[in-house]
Structures
1.
Amino acid sequence: MRRAINIQKDLAQIHTIEDLTEVFESIASMRIAKIRNRVVASKEFFAELWKTYRGLRINPKEHLARSRQTKNARHVFLAVTAEGKLSGGIDEQIINTMLDAHTDPGKIDIMVIGSHGLLQLRQRNIDVIQSFHLPVNDLHFSVADIIEAINSYSQISVFYQTYDSLRVQKVEHIDLVTAVHDLSDDVTKDTAVVTSRDYIFEPNSEKIIEYMESVMLGVALIQIIMESKLAQYANRFNTMSRAKIRAQELTNDYRRQYHRARRAENDERQKETIKALRTGTVSLLKRTVS
């Protein structure tokens, strides 16, 4: 049986792990709350932008036609993954889902956000056209470089993890332009028409429209990244919760081991004391008799 003092040292280490998991669990919970607020603010910004954009378009069917931006007939797949390995197995599911859809490599380019996804693709010898770091800041970041890289493609598919609830995260993929249309569904349809008779457009209205389309694609991508971050923090929260429960179970188990070891050591000391007393008594009797 292990000595009680050694068990006590292990128990102290488990207490430290338990405290750390609780701290990380709390941090993940706070970041989830912050991101939710950012998502709400982002939707409000998109609503105002969409109203102006819709007013600029004469024909609603031309919304996000992207005919001038699109210079590449190829299709691009963009995977949104985590920076580190604390995402669990969800990043692997994202990569697997993307590769399952990658049926025509001759017409599809692959880009990835997050170093964990990039590592997995490299391990599978998959060519990555371009990679980006997942934004570190949860509240203020730009996706302008990503939009610049993907905006020339005729079709943009994004693979990411969704936040259904704190306990449930799933892998989804969506066309980025469709994501913009989905956001626009929540916007009030009544908008004033913006024309050159009332406003001066510099350099011209078409350039302004193209810029606004890029901004709206960026807002849609930010929403996707925010949801992916929500799912990552939820997954981290769940991982820390399981680790904390496991640490608590180990704490109870080690406490039982410690008390058993203490009792065994006390019993052993009592036996040694009794044995010593008996030995001393016998020696004393022998000297007395002699």
Note: The mean pLDDT is 77.
2.
Amino acid sequence: MNLYEYDDYLRNKDGITVICGVDEAGRGPLAGDVYAAAVVLRGSPIEGINDSKKLSHKKREMLYQRIIESTSSVSVGIATVSEIEEINILNAAMLAMKRAIEGLNCDCEIVYIDGNRIPSGIGKRIDCIIKGDTLSASIAAASIVAKAERDRYMMKMDEIYPEYGFAAHKGYGTRAHYEKIVEYGLSPIHRRTFLKSFT
């Protein structure tokens, strides 16, 4: 069963027509906001859609453009570094997902979220799918959009804070990133709760 067939299975199982997939990007990095995307796929299948972590940067960018151009509704939600620090990264990721769902411009019948947690306060039918980004085309598309949007944001942060190399590692805890933190200290977009030994 491919990812689009799995979405058909979900529609048939739940007796619905319009579904939305949701996923997040940026839960693990040491710096930067956390992003989430909500995607409602319509029309012809987009060949190559898969979990964003399994795609090269070039392939992900190509698919991102096709998703944006051909879906009926795409929405991106963000939770900032200050929100991550205040409510922790898990709750911030849930908040970003909630904002993404609330930003949709169509009325989907059910929302499927990657993982095992559901954001609170969403007035829609909602369900979780563990490893959904490897099973569902809708969730995989959301993972691609969230990752691509966050990468664009980190490229902008690299222009503001070029000494940290954000364009290369996107805020993740690489050896080079830790070396730059030791050399320059923490930037305003570093998550201090992730880096307590440096504060």
Note: The chain has one domain: 3-152.
3.
Amino acid sequence: MTGRVFAAWLVLASGLCFAEAMNEERAVLGGGCFWCVEAVYQSQPGIKSVLSGYAAGKKANPTYEEVCTGNSGHAEVVEIAYDPAVISYEKIIELFWDAHDPTTLNRQGADEGTQYRSIIIAQSAAQREAAEKLKASAQSKFSNPIVTEIVDFTEFFPAEDYHQDFSERNPGHPYVRGVIDPKLRKLRDK
């Protein structure tokens, strides 16, 4: 490839990457163990990627062990990159209400602690407003009050590599078979 052809290819490739990024928005939320939440959203059309991590706490670059103590203030969350032309932020939040119990404070199933709290971390004023409206609307589905926190985004810290794509990489793991697989079946049956 000559210098000019390479330069033209580089400009074109950069433009494609930029155009692809233009059709991408992010949502950050937590509803218990991030392995479950990750698996729920990975199967949805329009979802480009789901990254497990930590947010809404006070410690920079926390480790899993630090988050598990409950002292970091962080919740286990996922950062979802999605194409808004295929799936809306509203649809992502509507699925959130179905994917976990937003009425239990600091727990989901056997997972207990502030790191497992139900939380939506708004990336913008528009997301916060939408999340608040959707929370109010979803309340009619539940007999107990929704305790989901809605907070503004500050920083997201990716979890360790062994937490990423956990369900896909560990289909025989007892947690996957006993918790995640039944949850996914229940959601598919809806």
Note: Confidence is low (pLDDT under 50) at residues 1-20.
